[in-house]
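Progress note, sequence design subtask.
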C-alpha cells in the first residue's frame, strides 16, 4: 500500500510528488503523456528555444521563482528585456506604460495611454472616485466588464482592461469574475478611502520588468523537479481510466490495467478530466467538477531570418479589433538566446475570439491564416522559415462569476472523501506560482 497516488504530471502534480518525496513518502505519479510538464512545454530545436505553454514566471507571485531557487536553479533565471509591450488599435501600435498592468488608472499617467481618446482618459482618471461611489464589497462576486465600465468608462474597459486580462485568461470579461481574476486588486478596491489615498500617493517610479524565465526555457523547472523526485515513482505514457475506493483508501487503474492502491489520491488534472475519473467513486464531486469551464487556446510560433527594427517584447490585440491574434510575444527580443543570431522568433496566442473557430482548421491553414494577419500588422517582408503549432484543448480555465463559490463547493465535497485531493490551474489561480502554492498545500495536508 502506497502513501499517495498523484494523477497528472503537470507543474501541480510534479510539485506534489516533489514535496512528498522530500518527506520520504512512498507513492506513484501517473502521467498520460509521454512527456512530463503538462502545459509547460519548451521545444528546443537547433538553437531555437520555443515556449509552447507558459512563457514567464512573474515576480509578483513568489512561489515559482522560490521553487527555482530551492532546486538550485537561481543562476539559470533570466529577466525579460525591459522594453515595452504594445497594444494594437486600428492596426497601429501603442506602447503600454509600465505599471498599467496593475489596472489602477490613478497610478499611471493617463496621457501615456495614448490609444484611448482624451475623453476616455478623463473618464478613466475618475476611477478612484467611482470606486468609492460604487464600491464592491470584498465578498461580492461581480463580472469584470460591467464593473470596470462603471468605474473607468467603456473605452478604458474595451481597449485596456480587456486585452490585459485576455492575455492571461483568454476569456470574455463580460463573464470573468473580478474577485477570481484580480484578487489582490479587488481587495484593495474594497478598501475605500484608504485605497484612494494609496492610489494617488504611490505613483510608480521606473518599473523593473516582472517577467522571468530560465536560460533553457521553463521546461528546465520540470526537468529539475523530476530529478529531485525519489520516493515517488514517476510513470509516463499511462492514462488513468478508473478510480475506485477501497477499505484502506483509493485504487487507480490505467488503460493497460496497471493498478495501484494508496491512502491518498491527488487528482492534478483539469477539473473535467477529474470529473470523468470520479464518476463512480465520488459522483457528487464529479457532478461539480463537470461544471468547470475552460477555453481552448493555441500557440503558433514562427521563425525567420533577418534583422528587424521593431523593438518590443510583443503586443496585445483587443477583442474589439476583431482579429485572429490575441497576443504576440517576440521571443527573440524578450529573452536572451532564444533564437540563433540574426533570426526572429515570435509566438502568437489565439483564444476563442477568432473570426472563425480555429479549432476546426488544420495546422497548416491555421499557421498560414495567422501569419497573414501578423504580416499585415507588423509588416515583416518575409515568409516564416519554421513554424510550430500547439493546441491546448483544455487550455485555460475560465474563472467566471461564481467560480470561487464553485471552488468552495468542490473543496467541501472533496473533504467528505478521506484521502481525496484536487489541485491545479482549474481551482485557485492559473499561473505557475498558483499551481505550486496549491500543490504545496495538498502535500502539507497529506503529510499532516
Ligand atoms: C498558452 C498558455 C500560456 C500560459 N502562460 C503562462 C505564463 O506565462 N505564466 C504562468 O505563470 N502561467 C501561464 N499559463 C498557465 C500555466 O501554464 C498552467 O495553468 C499550468 O501549467 C497548469 O498546470 P497543471 O499542473 O495544473 O495542469 P496541466 O499542465 O494541464 O497538467 C495536467 C496533466 O494531467 C495529465 N492528465 C490528464 N488526464 C490524465 C489521466 N486520465 N491520466 C494521467 N494523466 C492525465 C495531462 O496530460 C497533463 O500533463 C499558460 C497556459 C497556457 C495554456
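Output:
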Amino acid at each position: 500500500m502506497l502513501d499517495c497516488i498523484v494523477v497528472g504530471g503537470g507543474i501541480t502534480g510534479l510539485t506534489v510528488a516533489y514535496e512528498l518525496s522530500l518527506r520520504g513518502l512512498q507513492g506513484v505519479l501517473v502521467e498520460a503523456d509521454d512527456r512530463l510538464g503538462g502545459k509547460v512545454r519548451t521545444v528546443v530545436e537547433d538553437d531555437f528555444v520555443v515556449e509552447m505553454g507558459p512563457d514567464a514566471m512573474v515576480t509578483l507571485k513568489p512561489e515559482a521563482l522560490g521553487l527555482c531557487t530551492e532546486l538550485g536553479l537561481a543562476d539559470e533565471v533570466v529577466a525579460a528585456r525591459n522594453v515595452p509591450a504594445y497594444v494594437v488599435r486600428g492596426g497601429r501600435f501603442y506602447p503600454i506604460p509600465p505599471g498599467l498592468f496593475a489596472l489602477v488608472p490613478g497610478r499611471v499617467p493617463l496621457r501615456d495611454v495614448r490609444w484611448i481618446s482624451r475623453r476616455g482618459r478623463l473618464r478613466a482618471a475618475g476611477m478612484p472616485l467611482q470606486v468609492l461611489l460604487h464600491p464592491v464589497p470584498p465578498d461580492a462576486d461581480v463580472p469584470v466588464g460591467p464593473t470596470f465600465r462603471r468605474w473607468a468608462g467603456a473605452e478604458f474597459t474595451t481597449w485596456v482592461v480587456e486585452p490585459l486580462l485576455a492575455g492571461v485568461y483568454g476569456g470574455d470579461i463580460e463573464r470573468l469574475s473580478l474577485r477570481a481574476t484580480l484578487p489582490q486588486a479587488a481587495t484593495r478596491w474594497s478598501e475605500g478611502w484608504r485605497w484612494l489615498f494609496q492610489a494617488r500617493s504611490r505613483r510608480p517610479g521606473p518599473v523593473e520588468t516582472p517577467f522571468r524565465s530560465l536560460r533553457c526555457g521553463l521546461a528546465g523547472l520540470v526537468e529539475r523537479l523530476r530529478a529531485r523526485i525519489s520516493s515517488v515513482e514517476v510513470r509516463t505514457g499511462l492514462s488513468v481510466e478508473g478510480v475506485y475506493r477501497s477499505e484502506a483508501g483509493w485504487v487507480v487503474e490505467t488503460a493497460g490495467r496497471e493498478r495501484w492502491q494508496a491512502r491518498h489520491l491527488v487528482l492534478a488534472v483539469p477539473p473535467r478530466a477529474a470529473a470523468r475519473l470520479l464518476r463512480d467513486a465520488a459522483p457528487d464531486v464529479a457532478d461539480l467538477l463537470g461544471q468547470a469551464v475552460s477555453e481552448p487556446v493555441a500557440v503558433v510560433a514562427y521563425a525567420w531570418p533577418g534583422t528587424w527594427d521593431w523593438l518590443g517584447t510583443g503586443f496585445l490585440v483587443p477583442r474589439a479589433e476583431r482579429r485572429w491574434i490575441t497576443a504576440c510575444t517576440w521571443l527573440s527580443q524578450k529573452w536572451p538566446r532564444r533564437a540563433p543570431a540574426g533570426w526572429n522568433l515570435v509566438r502568437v496566442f489565439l483564444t476563442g475570439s477568432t473570426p472563425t473557430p480555429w479549432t476546426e482548421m488544420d495546422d497548416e491553414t491555421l499557421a498560414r491564416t495567422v501569419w497573414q494577419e501578423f504580416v499585415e500588422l507588423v509588416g515583416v517582408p518575409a515568409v516564416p522559415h519554421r513554424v510550430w503549432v500547439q493546441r491546448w484543448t483544455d487550455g485555460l480555465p475560465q474563472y467566471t462569476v461564481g467560480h470561487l463559490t464553485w471552488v468552495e463547493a468542490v473543496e467541501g465535497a472533496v473533504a467528505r472523501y478521506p484521502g481525496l485531493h484536487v489541485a491545479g490551474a482549474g481551482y485557485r489561480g492559473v499561473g505557475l506560482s498558483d499551481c505550486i502554492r496549491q500543490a504545496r498545500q495538498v502535500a502539507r495536508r497529506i503529510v499532516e
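The CA atoms of residues 335 and 430 lie 23 Å apart. Work on this subtask will continue into the next period as scheduled.
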